[in-house]
Amino acid sequence: QVQLVESGGGLVQAGGSLRLSCAASGNTISINAMGWYRQAPGKQREPVATVISTGSTYYADSVKGRFTISRDNAKNTVYLQMNSLKPEDTAVYYCNVARVDRTYWGQGTQVTVSS
Predict the structure, then answer these.
(1) Bridge partner residues of 50 (DSSP)
(2) Contact in structure between 78 and 22 (CB atoms under 8 Å)
(3) How far apart are CA 19 and CA 50, in angstroms?
(4) Rounded CA gap, 102 and 42, in Å?
(5) Furthest-apart CA pair in the chain: how many Å?
(6) Cα-flanking dihedrals φ and ψ of residue 3, to 5°?
(7) What percent of the chain is predicted at pLDDT more than 90?
(8) 66: part of which helix (H) or strand (E)?
(9) Is 92 exposed, middle or buried (0-12, 13-18, 19+ CB in 10 A)?
(10) Which residue, 14, 1, 3, is CA-closest to 76?
(11) Residue 78 bridge partners (DSSP)
């Protein structure tokens, strides 16, 4: 089992910044990828950014150039630095951790961007 604890969400004005953190504990061996998804009201959950064990990263087109994902392997923690936030970034953000045998989800953290 892997437990995930997220932090860092909140309310920010458009153009502002937030940093999300997700710490993994438990059986963290063989974690291949760590990342973030988000789900806005009435919409499907969508991938935002992912970093895999090699260090390669993936970003949704909508956040490229504004969000940066990073991973501290020693702490089993993944971060999402979100800059130049827009109202359309408002969503519940979920941490996602992929191991060889299954994936795990965090409880979600609300990010609200006011215009």
Answers:
(1) 35, 58
(2) yes
(3) 15
(4) 27
(5) 42
(6) -105, 140
(7) 87
(8) none
(9) middle
(10) 3
(11) 22, 71
C-alpha to C-alpha distance for 39 and 34, rounded to whole angstroms = 17
In this structure, the number of other CB atoms found within 10 A of the CB of residue 106 comes to: 22
Q: Given a cut of 90, is residue 52 above it in pLDDT?
A: yes
The number of residues making up the chain comes to: 115
Q: What is the pLDDT of residues 70-88, one digit of tens each?
A: 999 899 999 999 999 999 9
Q: What is the mean pLDDT of the chain?
A: 95
For tokens 């499907």, the residue is 44
Task: Round to whole Å and give the CA distance between 69 and 40.
Answer: 20
68: tokens are 């940066």
